Amino acid sequence: MTQERNFEPFSGALFAILGLLCVPAVIACIVAAKQMNRPDIFIPGMFVFVLIGMACFAGLFLVNPNEAKVLVLFGRYRGTVKSNGFYWVNPFTMRHRVSLRAHNLNGEKLKVNDKSGNPIEIAAVVVWQVHDTFAAKFDVESYEDFVKVQSEAAVRHMASAYHYDGEDGEITLRGSTDEVSRALQEELGERLERAGVEVTEARLAHLAYAPEIAQAMLQRQQAAAVIAARTKIVDGAVGMVEMALARLSHSGVVKLDEERKAAMVSNLLVVLCGERTTPIVNAGTIYQ
Fold first, then answer.
1. CA distances, 282 to each of 19, 75, 170, 252, 254 (Å)
2. Predicted local confidence at residue 13, as pLDDT
3. Model's pTM, two decimal places?
4. pLDDT in the model for residue 252
5. Could you confirm whether domain 103-209 is CATH 1.20.120.50?
6. 220-275: per-residue pLDDT in tens?
7. Which residues pair with 105 in a beta bridge?
8. Residues 106, 125: contact at Cβ < 8 Å?
9. Residue ranges of the alpha helices (H) in 113-171?
């Protein structure tokens, strides 16, 4: 299997000077042919200098920073020039430009189902660059389109592998951004290796429930938050009641039978757990 290899071309400055020298040589041949009236000698020489000059100028090319030129001569891969500069190669050599700069792919919003089957909207930002010019140019039809299609496929697969939201400790799309992004980057790296593309970063740029279920899911999240808050409030209230009864029993301020303890527990729980409470002053006893 052919792999990328470096190619060392000739200096372009030398051949540019040679091509420029061919111009006065052509003019001299024309002048000499008229003055000496010997076109049979100087006209063929003129065409030779013209061909040499055309070959010199046709083979010149530039390689800019963070750019590569893939060279193909008569259907055969000759190599890749990555060093920036001014060069010359055989004029019949095809020079394909490949950018080595980092590219940003701002993916479109995709409507997919998460692991629970809930429809969600998701999009990702992918930073990638070419590291193997041969694979990028010859192993796929268009490496830019390949990156776009494979990125969309990877995002869809990743979204279906995780729940949008879940219990504590579970990897979810909403709660485990770093883990999900790392998994997306690894999957994209495997998918794009065939095209000679390296993924340097991949992160979710958009994540939300689909509009048709967004309101219902918001109510569900609010209900879960209320339940969690109430659970903590009740746990705290029970602890405070236990502490109050223990302190009263230990200090001997008042002796409470089971019925009075039950009444105190009820009143304290109402006061501690209720959002709005109205204090009631009992002027008698609980038996009146």
1. 113, 102, 51, 21, 16
2. 93
3. 0.70
4. 64
5. no
6. 666 666 666 767 777 776 777 777 777 767 666 666 666 666 666 666 666 666 66
7. 126
8. yes
9. 133-134, 143-161
Which whole number is the average pLDDT over 56-64? Answer: 94
What interhelical angle do 211-251 and 258-273 show, nearest 10?
A: 140
Higher confidence at residue 160 or residue 217? 160
Please say whether the beta carbons of 251 and 211 come within 8 A: no
Strands in the chain per DSSP E: 10-11, 60-63, 67-73, 76-81, 85-88, 94-99, 103-106, 110-113, 119-130, 197-209
| Burial tier of 275 (Cβ tally within 10 Å: 0-12, 13-18, 19+) | exposed
Q: Is 80 helix (H, G, I), strand (E, B) or coil?
A: strand
pLDDT, residue 288, reads 47
Question: How many CA atoms lie within 13 Å of 160's alpha carbon, on the beta-carbon side?
Answer: 9
Q: How far apart are CA 78 and CA 142, in angstroms?
A: 20
Nearest-CA neighbor of 112 among 129, 124, 97?
124
Extents of the domains making up the chain: 10-97, 103-209, 214-273
Tokens describing residue 218: 């918001």
Cα separation, 104 vs 94, in Å, equals 28
Residue 27 tokens, joined: 């003019």
pLDDT band at 281 (very low <50, low <70, confident <90, very high): very low
- Angstrom distance (rounded) from CA 137 to CA 96: 8
Name the residue among 119, 120, 115 with its Cα closest to residue 204.
Answer: 120
Which among 227, 277, 2, 274 has a CA at the least distance from the CA of 132? Answer: 2
Q: What rounded mean pLDDT belongs to the chain?
A: 83
CB 108 within 8 A of CB 126: no
Phi first, then psi: what are they for 94, rounded to 5°?
Answer: -80, 130
2: which DSSP letter? -
Q: Strand pairing partners for 172?
A: 163
